[in-house]
């Protein structure tokens, strides 16, 4: 399980990285950020990139910045950055709830937020967050910069709108209003494993009624997404078990679960019901 | 200060093995290197069954750094890998060749071997070897009707049968009959260290060396010598640190043969390290069986007869153990219960999967699950409690030793000692079983899915017949114990040192234990079947008693005392009343050197050899109890309380015994809930990473209460000890199944291991409907 | 640029200048080029944790980093835990609580636990178990590892 040979490039500026990518992408050149998904696939020689462009030395990509409206997460920001209170308010609280579900601590010290988004594993927690919060992915190539909303970013299992000569320079998440409540729940066989399913719920209460509900699921379908049919059942309702249960039921009917040798469609559907209900209850 | 003997047996001293392992100075196979060594990489079959039409080597041979690439044609003089117990004509056609010749039979089967100057280069070249394989149909279910295998063979290699009494008549007389169809999934030891082997040929001494050996170096030396047509005098095996054995490590595999042949041919050391993906498809699998079992009972729940037909999924070849797993399953199935009539037929079937062999508690993990599921079913059928139905059937301590007309590991089963009911009572009391039963009822009323499980088992240990040890006291007083035992991390050195220290009156830290080296002692039983402690410790004890006698005899002369007035304390021979002069063991060794004038007509050296022989194995026993809670929303199973009660006869180091039991439990839990080597319909393995093969982590393994008892010393060895290596794992599948089933309403729904959340959730959802 | 290049690694405060191909993993270079074989290889795909080392103080999987990426970074391995002959409190606790059997996973667990406790000396039991779930052990059933790390945490705080 030794990786195949590759050429190593370590640009120190974004422009340099983009230029290299433009040149090398057609020769199967790839970006190396945290490497926690890429390197195992190279060890199995499932991936054999001929060039790796290591962006860890680009200072401008390491920034995690927070304004009143937006959390901006640079390409080299590690998962572990969200374990402390760098991001304030309810958004920070949500990210802390989520991050402890991601793999294990020594993976979180290396793996990056944007790398998870680019890799687009169906069970990626950050992909679920991006969908739930309607974040924006900032893509850069030698052709320029473009902003892709989360709803247009995913195309299928581990496939995205990312062109081969583009790299994610940052992801922007809108800050949630401070009266938002959030819940995140996932289920895996062992601690730290890829989740079989996960659910993220967020909403606010105005005059006793739920407003701006968000329900996103991950792990169950080819990519994470919000479930509007389930959300619509929550609008204007008082938070409580019955309405949560109705939303969970709607989520379970709305999903089109993937099937694998360990997990049938019915099992994943049942998990979605359970996890949506629990995420809503956890938020309450 | 008193001159009385210091106690070392029964004391939880810290391990002698730990210091190098804690500071990164262990020496595992991967840590060993020899000058000018080559690295070997195996090209493996990507196909589960096919005719091997061609192997293209040109591209691979062109890679700089490649020294040679071998196929079957390069090793035609090497026979298929032999059985440890010697030739077996009936099973011989099923043995695995070192490299596949005309046909491949499982994904992972070695087809070619690349030798290169660097492991990265070897892997590059191996990738460029292209195989032309004509795919053939695959067999992935061992319980289907037997058929053709590999063109010339049948899938049913043999049927192992045991039994006694008149089973047919017993079923006719039965008040009730229960019948179950039960399966255990394919899983295995999966040690943290993968396999490794370094072959080295020392032409100066004409000695062929295998480094990285484990488990049974001496037995493997004999097999290898037979296969190579080489004298054992010119073949030595060296055990290094071993990163977990569990039965699968240390058997002879194709790669061990290849590094040896290559070392001879290239006149350079050849190193092979298995990678994890290879390990998952190449090292021995285990456990997969399907049992169709039925029991005849009388109206009071007494067993009259058990009739079991089972299908053992052996995989593509029969490896070194032959039919041992199935034989053991047959011989040990009745467990702790009286059983007037018994019949078992184990169908030993081949499939297109990785070959299977022994894994910690082989044949018992499976049959404990099967038998204890049966006992639960009998309880349900007769409306008896699960405790009571077991109690009524237990063999009593008055019946010991209890002879069974069965054979396990080639040994007649004679249960040497045990108070099974006594241990059941203690375990039930300490676990607070009856209080928990009330709790469980109450919690169920409030909607919780909780359940209790119980499993009883008999283990075996100390397979003989004979083992020896040699003790040599050096002139500085250091006691060297040379054994043919093996250390796979279980604390072998510490335990042997404790036994010798107690007898010789020295600090155990002054005892050095040699193991796993065929060049230091001619014979050795190694470390398998929980025999190392029982056999080697007793042999070492006999040697130590002889050394003690010699030391006292020599000292009596030098101190001008009567031998009976002397003892050994803290490494010195002293008067038992602590008065007068003393002399150290080191000085006595000096007086016993060949040129010593004081030696008299004694043989030179303060050294002796001891041999221990036993007619039968010794049988520890235990009870496992569990309280589990099911999450109805996900099917997840949480173990709230877990206990293992185990009678070890006599514990030399209780902390190490507990460590064995808790560690074994974690492995058993893997097989019960998490671990499985899954295959698709084409025979492609689906569990080739540690992300797919789910070994429990610290979050999954609960605290385990250990009730360690020493009620029933072995009657078959002087130290009275029994082995502890397999008691932790033996009944975990059984007890977890019992508890989960109870949590699902005690309807007998759990019929297969591992029990996955999906199965549990489906059962719960069905119950609600 | 796939040819070997010279890099300098700092392992336990000792500088090692080695020529490596970019594809060589940090763990291979630590073991084979720098001869520090205490760091073990268990899976090479980032699951088992046997290769855990501290990179600038943070526990990382050394099988998932290329050695060229660790140039000019500070690496700590199991060989650097002792102070002279004096064992680190974590090492002492492991032997006292019988937290190792075969010892293969031990260096990875030691580095994981030391790295975590140096950063967060006050981990509660749940956090500790969560962190220790990062690595696999096949012998001990983890109970004694958890006990040892708890005991060492107290010692480390006392010595801090």
Structural features, described:
The complex is a heterotrimer of chains A (284), B (769) and C (160). Chain A has ten helices and 14 strands. Chain A is an alpha+beta fold. In chain A, strand 12 and strand 13 form a beta hairpin. The radius of gyration of chain A is 19 Å and the shape is globular. Chain A starts with 6 loop residues before the first strand and ends with a helix. With 769 residues, chain B is an alpha+beta fold. In chain B, helix 13 (492-504) packs parallel to helix 14. The model of chain B has no long low-confidence stretch (mean pLDDT 96). By secondary structure, chain C is α+β, with helices and mostly antiparallel strands. Chain C has helices at residues 26-33, 89-96, 106-119, 125-132, 143-159, and strands at residues 5-11, 14-20, 52-55, 58-61, 74-76. The longest helix of chain C has 17 residues, at 143-159. The model of chain C has no long low-confidence stretch (mean pLDDT 97). Chains in contact: A-B, A-C, B-C. At the B-C interface, helix 1 and helix 16 of B face helix 2, helix 3, helix 4 and helix 5 of C.
Quick take:
The complex is a heterotrimer of chains A (284), B (769) and C (160). Chain B is of the alpha+beta class. Chain B has 18 helices and 31 strands.
